[in-house]
Amino acid sequence: MANTPRVLFVDDERALRDMWSAIFSVEGFDVTTAATVPEALSRITSDKFDVLVADLNVGEPGDGFTIVSAMRRLQPEAVTLILTGYPAFQAALRAIHEQVDDFLVKPAEPKRVVETIRQNLTRRKTPKPIMTERLNEVIAKNRQEIIERWYRAVESHPDIRKIPLPREERMDDLPSVLDELVRSMEPDKLARPQARSAAVEHGEKRRQQGYTISMLLEETRILHRVVADCMQKNLLLVDLSNLIPDLLEVHDRMHRMLQYSLQAFLRDGTARAA
């Protein structure tokens, strides 16, 4: 450890960033601040830190765990602390699971935070090995959450919700799409016959239900986003050596399924474009 410990403080509130930057500086720390997850990840990949102090909710609930995951992956010897104004039991359990060194409740007393940092710096433990998984395995483990988040997003979409459908009909072939995504990550140019049939049937149903092409595209865009969020929240578990090819393969499979649905949707030539 360097003579002057380097601290990365992450919070989306500027007043708190300014306050803690001043406190840490007075206490003899070299402080860097970040306001967003992308900014924090950029700092972690470009600079070396001894300590991470992150708000639990940086923009979105639980974003702090994404930042902790990145720090644990790239700088495993760094001390990681989570600050939160909502000390829920579930959040505390996840902090333990993510191997966060400590979990502090806001408004935290500066003296308590500084003491916690110094204590953890003096007793830093040997980093535990991280068991990684391929992206399709992460998707499989979070299958139900992905389905629920996709459903809520689609139901709240201002255009799609104009076509009221029961939950089962709105879901339609989503489980089949996810099954297609979680099979072996070896590149494959053809969808399985049952998955292709489900995609074709999905396109036909959506035309009958009154969907437009843009709505069909928007459903797939939302799924892309939900899967990306799932990957980000499980960054600690993802096998980074295969992440890019796995993402490309997952996106390729989504687009193939969308292609089959669109072909069926347009088959009679009367589909609406918008």
Describe the structure.
55% of the residues lie in helices and 9% in strands. It is an alpha/beta fold and 274 residues long. It has two domains: 6-122, 3-Layer(aba) Sandwich (Rossmann fold), CATH 3.40.50; 135-265, Globin-like, CATH 1.10.490. The chain has a five-stranded parallel β-sheet with strand order 2-1-3-4-5, sandwiched between helices. Strand 1 (6-10), helix 1 (14-26) and strand 2 form a beta-alpha-beta unit. Helix 2 runs parallel beside helix 3, helix 10 crosses helix 12 and helix 11 (213-233) packs antiparallel against helix 12 (243-265). The protein is elongated and about 70 Å long.
| Percentage beta strand | 5-15%
SSE succession:
EHEHEHEHEHHHHHHHH
Q: Helical amount among residues, as a percent range?
A: 55-70%
Q: Class of the largest domain in CATH?
A: Mainly Alpha
Number of domains: 2
Kindly identify the CATH topology of the largest domain: Globin-like
User: Judging by the overall fold, what is the CATH architecture of the largest domain?
Assistant: Orthogonal Bundle
The side-by-side strand order for the widest beta sheet comes to 2-1-3-4-5
Q: How is the biggest beta sheet arranged?
A: 5 strands, parallel
Structural class: alpha/beta
Termini Cα gap: 59 Å
What overall form do the CA principal axes indicate?
elongated
Mean pLDDT: 83
How many helices in DSSP terms?
12
Unreliable residue stretches: none
Q: In total, how many beta strands?
A: 5
Radius of gyration: 23 Å
